[in-house]
Amino acid sequence: MTHSPTTDSRAVLAAMYTAEARYLAAGGPGTASFDLLAPCFAPDVVLHQAAALPYGGDWRGHRGMERFFRAMSDTWAEFELVAQDFLATGETSVVRTIVRARSRATGRELTFPILQTLTVRDGRITEVRPFYWDTVAVVRACTP
Predict the structure, then answer these.
(1) CB contact at 8 A, 138 and 49
(2) CB burial class (10 A; 0-12, 13-18, 19+) of residue 37?
(3) Buried (b) or exposed (e) across 59-75, using 16+ Cβ within 10 A?
(4) In tens digits, what is the pLDDT along the chain, a chain of 144 residues?
(5) Whether the predicted model's global pTM rises above the 0.85 cut
């Protein structure tokens, strides 16, 4: 049976965001098992974060993703996806998310958009590239 890439990608992304919510509700990094998220990501997944961010750089594979979620948890005391729009879905999908977050280091709150491109192949996410509207604002919110 052949599946439409649009349907498959959208389903994979929806499953990943649902799994991420379950992972965070179960305590997140250090408490919950990354096994909740692992099926959504290819073993060789690559996440590219802007270098200027506190969690910047390239995160590779399941272990890299696990370390990324730890770095996010170390940076943000709260990180809520307020609104999300799937702008395009296919092998490369585009998702716009409005985030409300509170810095662990400063207590400062920030609401900001992230536009992500996500590549989905064979039912798993293989690459994620988030684009932040204002990385300087994120760094300022997180810097004591």
Answers:
(1) no
(2) buried
(3) bbebebbbbbbebbbeb
(4) 344 444 488 899 999 999 998 988 888 888 999 999 999 999 999 999 999 999 999 999 999 999 999 999 999 999 999 999 999 888 899 999 999 999 999 999 999 999 999 999 999 999 999 999 999 999 999 999
(5) yes
